[in-house]
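During the first year of the project, the team set up a workflow for recording each protein of interest as an amino acid sequence followed immediately by a discrete structure-token representation. This format lets reviewers and collaborators read both layers of information side by side without switching files. As required by the reporting guidelines, we include two representative entries from the current panel. The first entry is reproduced here exactly as it appears in our internal archive.
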Amino acid sequence: MSLLRALCLGFCFGFLFLEANGQASDSVPDSGRHLTLEAFIEQASRRDSVFQEILIDELTLQYQRTLALPPRDLVLSVRGEFGLSLDGTPRPDLTASLERLFPLQGASMALQFESVSRSAADRNNELSLVFGMELARNAFGRSTQMLDKLTGMETEIARHQIVEAYEDYLASLIVSYYRWTAAWESVKAAQSAVEEGEKLLTNIQSKQRSHIAYQVDVDKARFQLLGKQESRVSAQDEYDGLTLHIARAVGGNPDGLRPDSVGLHRDGNIDVQREREAFFESGRTESILRLLQDRDSLALERAADNLLPSLQAYGGLGLGDSEPTVAENTRAFVGLSLGYSFQKSREKATVEVTKLTSQKQRLAAGNARSRLVADLESLFQTIEAQKVAIGLSEQRLILAQSISDAESRDYIYGRADINDLIQALNTLQETRFSKIRQEIELDILLVEWRRLTDQLVSRREAFERSLPAVISPE
């Protein structure tokens, strides 16, 4: 009779344990303020000051052309001179000019007035209009036009690099979000494991009171429970730390903040050929490489232009007052102004250095493209391998759950000892953790793929999200 009673008690406690074991994964309430990935990106883009710091560089680019090019100034020059002849006669002179510069055309126009004392009774005044044009170095503004193009290229490169920096930081935040999600799932899995351990300990203690289980079985169950509690504390600590970082990025309170449990790995199909072709045809990285090569070629051409002599043609019309008639006082003139330096060591060195820099950039661009091809191919293979690993983990999890249920039943009826049951429960817990890590790792790999192929964010998206906060900070 006592044997029948023991079997009945064991069956009842075992049934309760199996029910708890089958539903343990849903035992942690997923309450709190949920933060989806989309909401996280939107809020962080507007509130994280790192994004604003990156985009401030964009606001300075509008001034680069003005800073780099010679100014289109209207220049007023006045020169006054007071002299004395040997007989003590004062001879004041005055020269004034108003000059307008046209740097992109290599031209200038000046209105000049000159008053010169030849003697105490003889003063010559002349008003003239003079046009000038560069004919050799910077001929017709050629060098300045190249400088204008160089400035535009450097500005465009800087714009691409700003978006690259924005994208890199955005990718790091998304990875943080996924790790935060993984930490939350680990907390739930660890809590489920603790509850399973508590149910097992309660079951075995009940069996011990009914003289079915031994004290060593209770100790083993308690030892296992302590290990699961330790894992829960570690998982909770990691989750709390990541929550603080997530809350800082969105400028919110970390209390009760919860991630959305849905990842992006369900949309992980990649058309490698199409995306790689688009990347190397119109991606930001390829645009930067092309601009760098074009910039160095143009810089070499401009450096060679600086080896030419300075030759300026000028002409104009002058009106004086020294003669009795207007016709005699009016003169037209043309001329050439030549300046040549016989020692051009610095200019020649600049040309040679620019040649080497251009050659180096061509090699660097080719090497960068080769590295990118290899990196993309390797990353794609890793993504596909991770998908396979997740599929295997799903099968392992089903089997681990089945084995755990079977070991639990066998233990109830005395067909397995406590060691087999504990091993099955530990394997189930490890398989759950492994599947969580693999899914999050796949999400992170997909983020890296999108970052490498310049698909994570566009310049327009970056500015629509974050630039208003830069212009009008809260």
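The second entry, processed by the same pipeline in the following quarter, appears below.
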Amino acid sequence: MKQFLIFVLVAWSGSVAAQSGAVISKVRFCGTEYAVPAGCTAQSEYEVRCSSYAIQWIPTLEKASVSLSEKLIANTEQQQDPSKRSLYEKKQVKVLLANQPATACYRINYMGRDGKMTHKLIAYGIVSGQSVCVILSSENELDTNSDIPSFAGKIIQFVT
């Protein structure tokens, strides 16, 4: 329940920033500040959206990370086109979060209700002492580090 409240607070803070018209030019991931890339917008200090991808991170309590990631994965199952369930794919992969090994990560591919394929990495781990859940969503497949957009690659990379 506490984790759900944190998620709602993060989403609400993004909504407030968007409503106030304030342009967010920098975001902070576990203590490291990044400039928002050209052509992208920060929805909040925890989310960057670009034309073909979005990356979001949610600071969590360590013991809540597993529960939150399971809920996010279940949410992808609900977002898929029911007639295209055979296209749903979930696979555990190894990634780094800011060059530190993630506790776990799942690569998920599915056909959305909008008829478009969606590719996600949902990972959680501890970065600079902060437990965090990271969600990278892309229109493009996410199979190798070269598939990860450069800004997102500062936050999440495949273990090679």
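For the second entry, the following points were noted during internal review. The helical segments are 2-20, 65-79, 150-153. Residues 1-18 have pLDDT under 50 and may be disordered. Both points are flagged for discussion at the upcoming steering committee meeting.
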